[in-house]
Amino acid sequence: ACSSKYVLSALHPMWQGPLVAPGGNRQSPIDIRVRKSVFDPHLKPLTPDYDPRTCSQIWNNGYSFLVEYDDTTDKSTLKGGPLEDNFRLCQFHFHWGESNAWGSEHTVDRRLFPAELHMVHWNSDKYSRFEEAVMEENGLAVIGVFLKIGKRHEGLQKLVDVLPAVRHKDSVVEFTRFDPACLLPSNIDDYWTYAGSLTTPPLTEAVTWIIMKQHIEVSHDQLAVFRSLLFTSAEEEVQKSMVNNFRVQQSLQGRTVRSSFT
Ligand SMILES: C[C@@H](CNC(=O)c1ccc(S(N)(=O)=O)cc1)Cn1ccc2ccccc21
Ligand SMILES: [Zn+2]
Predict the structure, then answer these.
(1) Which of 52, 174, 215, 224 lies 20 to 30 Å from 109, alpha-carbon distance?
(2) Rounded distance from Cα 77 to ligand 2 centre (Å)
(3) How would you classify the pairing of strands 31-32 and 107-108?
(4) What is the mean pLDDT of residues 93-105?
């Protein structure tokens, strides 16, 4: 329920919009220079508490596919880590490449991953709905998880199986009882965190990024199904494969990336 109201056509990765938000000094994504990150002993463990029953639908919005959660109550929440307030899960989505050689938005010492998961939450202590929080500094918290090609991810398969039903932009299907916690790595205590932005328009500088150090594994075939999605709607005559839906990296501009581990 957190982004279905907007026509997201402006979000097509080939969008001709500014590559850097005007006056933006905390833009995302970035390269995480491990040796330049600063260990912060005050960072707490992250405590996600997700209820699979809040999973509602999956849709192709023309820049990725979103798995949306009912965020009208505090049923699927994220607390702890660098966060002072309670945040509500509203959706998760991915970014990926046309080949396994690239696809992630963030990198670690310039290392690229074939894909990256983003779990999007908004500050329900300070704001009453997502659209409000998205415009406010630190209104959002996004968990980033890198994907590597390896063994098949059993939990992801339920999602992969429904993707053909949302092949075209603006297609939506009901999708229920999916536990997003199954997509988190076994270790969520080790992460980097920094102040950043949305990586698609409106590029608002509202995001506390929490990037997991440990990746998850998905199979080559599972990622290939992501690439079978289309940027284009059923009516358009020229169909374009949904690949390379990542933003170019932005400069750190003096920001510090903190780590929860030494
Ligand atoms: C926030 C947009 C919708 N976009 C998102 O919700 C969103 C969420 C996470 C990421 S990421 N990749 O950083 O995790 C990117 C986008 C709606 N919306 C609200 C106002 C608005 C104005 C123009 C266009 C769209 C607009
Ligand atoms: Zn994203």
Answers:
(1) 224
(2) 18
(3) parallel
(4) 98
